[in-house]
Amino acid sequence: MSALLTRDLALAVRAGGGFGLGLAFFLIVVVLVPFGVGPEQALLGRIAPGILWLGALLACLLSLDRILALDWEDGSLDLLATAPLPMELLVSTKALAHWITSALPLVVAAPLLGVLLNLPGPGYLWLLVSLAVGTPALSVIGTFGAALTVGLKRGGLLMSLLVLPLYVPTLIFGAEVARRGAAGLEVAQPLTMLAGITFGVIALLPFASAAVLRINLR
Amino acid sequence: MRVSDLSVARGGVRVLEGVSFTLPAGNALVLRGPNGIGKTTLMRCVADLQPALAGIVTGAEDRVAYAGHADGLKAMLSVAENLRFWARVFGTDGIEAALTAFDLEALQDRPAGTLSAGQKRRLGLARMLVTGRPVWVLDEPTVSLDVASVALFADAVGAHLARGGSALMATHIDLGLDRAEVLDLTPFKARRAVDEAYL
């Protein structure tokens, strides 16, 4: 497992690995929003948690088709399937590598970009917490989508359509934590729901991903 | 390893039925047959990458190292890094023997993406050595290899058989192995071409 993780991390940071693609997209979205909605500071502060969550989610979506497609194309997925590594562990490792290379940079960058959107003071901590708790679910659900569409040429559109509805609960509760935090309200309830979704998908979805991957490799 | 009464399908179409053979340790079995007869499908089935329609494969669980048409190399990793990754995945150590066997020492720091087709194939075959698995399943292993590389490959397979391993391969080249049998798949071609499940 650690061999696969270190290889995926090494591949992500080398040329052509796509590291930073999601981060650049996130930056562009957040920088462009004030131009689109106008410079009114109160309005920007009110919509900032939602915009930041939406930007992070879409940036995450952008890198999903790399999770398994590259390994499928060059044949390593077949070889990994015959290796002494359970398929469930394989997809979990892939999801973890995606979270570290694609989602973690977004979590770290989000509070910095919050400044551009005039995010209210108490919101920074809760934005960071909600993204840290919620984005693992995005990676795990995304790996499931990637496993469903592996082997399809240009399956990106289909995967986005399959994955987006599954992302909605995480977006609702994640953005709610950030919004309530920014407004200085109680966040325990949506944060519990968000953590519940994340732990639930981490526990269950790898089995589903492994099952569809086995079928798709036939 | 023993295969008994195996039927396999590709894309819902039954291609082979009633295939039976035994592959004892130290032996090689070469599959022959025209294109599309189902050599690849049979070997993917033996490697447990797809289920059989009927019949069973015994003695293959966690003992098979598979090499298909694609070599599974990462272009941005060097030759040594590629091999070391597979060694770690399979829990073995030492890639030097594999590098030597396929004459890759001089290339070990080159990114795999810059290798020629034949060199890539040699690296893909060197992977079989680092897996440490006793049963090699090789699909067209000699594609894009030159005469000298084919000789290296034949030596590696010969050494593997001498260590008590076995090899199942589809190739049209005679490797000059001592203990190799040839199995022509033409008599096993499925008569009912379409699987009922798809009708």
List the helices and strands and how they pair.
The complex is a heterodimer of chains A (218) and B (199).
Chain A: H1 2-13, H2 21-37, H3 41-62, H4 66-73, H5 76-81, H6 87-116, H7 123-149, H8 156-182, H9 188-217
Helix pairs in contact in A: 1-6, 2-3, 2-6, 3-6, 3-7, 3-8, 4-7, 6-7, 6-9, 7-8, 7-9, 8-9
Chain B: E1 2-10, E2 13-22, E3 28-32, H1 39-46, E4 54-58, E5 64-67, H2 79-89, H3 96-101, H4 117-131, E6 135-139, H5 147-162, E7 166-170, E8 180-184
Parallel strand pairs in B: 3-7, 3-8, 5-6, 6-7
Antiparallel strand pairs in B: 1-2, 1-4
Q: How would you describe this structure to a colleague?
A:
- The complex is a heterodimer of chains A (218) and B (199).
- Chain A contains 9 helices and no strands.
- Chain A has 218 residues and is mostly helical.
- Chain A has one domain.
- In chain A, helix 7 (123-149) runs parallel beside helix 9 (188-217).
- In chain A, 47% of the residues are buried.
- Chain B has 199 residues and is α/β, with parallel strands linked by helices.
- In chain B, helix 2 (79-89) runs parallel beside helix 4 (117-131) and helix 4 (117-131) runs parallel beside helix 5.
- In chain B, strands 5-6-7-3-8 form a 5-stranded parallel beta sheet, sandwiched between helices. A 3-stranded antiparallel beta sheet of chain B has the order 2-1-4, covered by helices on one side.
- The interface between A and B is medium-sized, with 24 and 30 residues.
Cα-atom radius of gyration of chain B: 17 Å
Task: Report the end-to-end length of chain A measured between terminal Cα atoms.
Answer: 23 Å
Largest sheet of chain B: 5 strands, parallel
**Tally of separate domains of chain B:** 1
Report the oligomer.
heterodimer
Largest sheet of chain A: none
Low-pLDDT segments of chain A: none
**Average pLDDT, all residues of chain A:** 91
Shape of chain A: elongated
The CATH architecture of chain B would be: 3-Layer(aba) Sandwich
Q: Which two chains have the most extensive interface, and how many residues on each?
A: A-B, 24 and 30 residues
Fraction of residues in β-strands of chain B: 15-25%
Helix content of chain A: over 70%
CATH topology (fold) name of chain B: Rossmann fold
Give the overall shape of chain B: globular
- Strand element count of chain B: 8
* Number of distinct beta strands of chain A: 0
Query: Which CATH class of chain B is shown?
Result: Alpha Beta
